[in-house]
Amino acid sequence: MDFSVTSDNRDSMSDTIEVEGDLDSSFDIPNGGSILIISNDQSYLTHGIHKFPAKFFPELPRYLIRKYSEEGDYVLDPMCGSGTTLLEAMLNNRIGIGIDIDPIARLISKVKTTPIDSESLESESDALNTKIQELATSETYRPIIPDFNYRDNWFRSFVLNELGIIRDSIDSVISQQIEINDFFKVVLSSIIRDVSNADPHCTRTVLRKKVVKSIDPGDTISRFTQTLSRQQIVMDEFTRIAKTLNKGHVLLPDGNAIRTGLENDSMDLVVTSPPYINAVDYPRTHQLEMYWLRLLGDGPLSHVKRKYIGTETVYKDEYENLRLSGYETLDLILEQIYAKDPRRSFIVFKFFEDMKQQLSEMFQVLKPGGRYCVAIGNNLIRGVEVRSDEILSEIATSSVGFELENTFFSKLIRHFIRIPRPERMLGEWVLVLQKPP
What we know:
The chain has 437 residues and is of the alpha/beta class. It has helices at residues 59-68, 84-91, 103-112, 118-136, 151-154, 157-172, 178-195, 219-242, 282-285, 287-292, 301-305, 328-340, 342-365, 388-400; strands at 3-7, 15-20, 34-38, 74-77, 95-98, 249-251, 267-272, 366-376, 379-381, 384-386, 403-411, 427-434. The chain folds into two domains: 3-115 and 244-434, Vaccinia Virus protein VP39 (Rossmann fold, 3-Layer(aba) Sandwich), CATH 3.40.50.150; 118-242, no CATH class. Helix 3 crosses helix 7 (178-195), helix 6 (157-172) runs parallel beside helix 8 (219-242) and helix 12 runs antiparallel to helix 13.
């Protein structure tokens, strides 16, 4: 493990420990310190099967899993996103338990952590490619194209046609192994943003006049077949490694971060990164993919967004009056934001109310002595700094019963999507909370 120390002017952190690749689990990151892990494994095995905003780089959960759990332990991520923690738990011979309210997150996590027989996948992929070419060269075939708001603004007509052909082909080549169908769907989902007219560098799905992509007829099908071939190789390698594991596997039970449905005192370790206040709107980010994969149902997107921790979809009567939490640090922030923007003040209030319930749920499901490692970013909202790490630490220790064992700042240097506003975070604080033995 190679270290270097760089200067960092952020708050009291004068030095940043810089590590390339894996961080040895025997190393203790100084309390209140700063670390920069230069990731080498963003696309290792199935980690790169689908882009996902604000995802963990694998080395951080890998370090926490190795440091705070043993082989065969249960490692929970209650807001698992695209499954980075789950895959790392599995590869390190732990049992990963993943929960997420987001349907595309659950699908990606499932595919990322489910081995597929290589011969079966090759046979089914050949059949799928044959079906796609058959439909694409037919002069009479008209694919089923989903109807959703502004569809024809998001996609050019020939792209819609080609996406429809791919989706219809996946539907028609029905494998007896549901994991193969799910794999095909995730590969399809992974190219949708790229072939749409949406700005590829924005977390929200938006159109920009200055962003004009060069997409020609045939490019969508070509991109899908190339991605499918590449991801087959990745899945084959993952499956080969998975066969060598004697304990590691992943379970994806129903539930949500506040009501997991898990038994009390059943988890050895929890590692997660909650949604950031005011930063990533996950339903909107993945709306095009979810429309094509039929994951949104018939209701409006706003109804889906209401269910997420950190949602910005709130009603006017909820923020007509200032809402206070009873926590001195947080209430001062809520008052300052309310004076400028009552709606934003309520969004912050609701986030921490939800996180208080989430902390309580983790306290219940953790075994005595178990740890909850939570990576949380701080925000600048209407010019007011929201130190989420300090607020969550106060809630966790004063109201829930956790002990704060350690806290350190993990700097970020790589983003797949840029956040074009002042609230963009330079990193996140990692809180290591322990349930008393």
